[in-house]
Specification:
The structure is a homodimer of 201-residue chains.
Chain A (H helix, E strand, L loop, with lengths): L2 H4 L2 H23 L6 H8 L3 H7 L3 H13 L11 H12 L2 H12 L5 H28 L9 H18 L6 H14 L13
Pfam family, one (chains A, B): TetR_C_11
Protein name (chains A, B): AcrR family transcriptional regulator
GO molecular function, one term (chains A, B): DNA-binding transcription factor activity
Amino acid sequence: MTSEDRAPGRPRSREADAAILETALELLIESGATATSIEQVARRAGVTRATVYRRFPDKTRLLIAALEAAYGDPPPIPEIADVEQLVKSWATVVADPRQRRLLRRVYGAIEDLPELAKAYQDLFGKDRDQARRDVFARARDSGHLPAGVDLEVLLDLLTGAIWQHLATRPDTCTPAETEDFLRDVLRQVGYRPRPEEGTAP
Amino acid sequence: MTSEDRAPGRPRSREADAAILETALELLIESGATATSIEQVARRAGVTRATVYRRFPDKTRLLIAALEAAYGDPPPIPEIADVEQLVKSWATVVADPRQRRLLRRVYGAIEDLPELAKAYQDLFGKDRDQARRDVFARARDSGHLPAGVDLEVLLDLLTGAIWQHLATRPDTCTPAETEDFLRDVLRQVGYRPRPEEGTAP
């Protein structure tokens, strides 16, 4: 067997990979992690169950791989200049109906597939949270946030506000409305877009 | 037919009601709203499907009735003296493993049974949120919260923080740890247990 003998199979294999991962993400958003099965993914992706199982030992690993494929592994860390830019980039994600459904599905999986929620958190959380912490630290140092702000609590509080937005605001909310929501939350913790406005409520 | 003729059936009927509602709540917590079926509820409660359907036209109404039965309809509005007491009563609920699972199941149902999440919000939200708003307004007026605090945003932010706690903290967290978490969040929005400490970070 030379490498030429195997070559023709590789693009097809890559196609099957992509179809399986895209279908898994689709089904996660449509039906949720618990209701999604390897059988369904195989059927809709047009491959056999064996083809899926050869690549992914179980549903959780398949769904984690689907998230990684969609969002990059590791996902590119966005360059965030300041809090305003962070609010804008966050609002773009949170106002996207597909992302909203995916995020709620990830939350909904905490009970039955905790590894999936954990993987999502690791995938997005670790590096991005560090980038966000850095933005907030700079904002604090330049007087846009109070000197005594607790960066960890602030991150929890903003992530929580996003869960609350996903739970209570309509999926038709615009990025601008979502930015306003996030800025309202930030204002409560003493964020001032311009430090000279520091005394205004 | 006199009322005496029907009387013997009524305790049994009430027993069936209670069994159905308790089982529905159990299954909601165990398996989630999507995975729970009227069939399962009937089987585990030891009644026929027809008995369930005679009382509840569909699964969503059954699950809503189960929440109402468990939490009162309308649920008693707790007397909350101040923010400290609110934090304590909130922490008691949020640190209870069964409540944690139920709350995550309610969040997890937003996508497939939005009426259930809505009913839960109405059941707990409306009157309780007003009671909470009153507590925060008094805290603001007595200098425990900043004069410019936005009560609506504060409620969103605290509810969000609870979703974040349910998503990221272990179910073994104690009420005391949960109180600390809530107080940390409140401190970021300028809450001071004693107004004379107002200048400390």
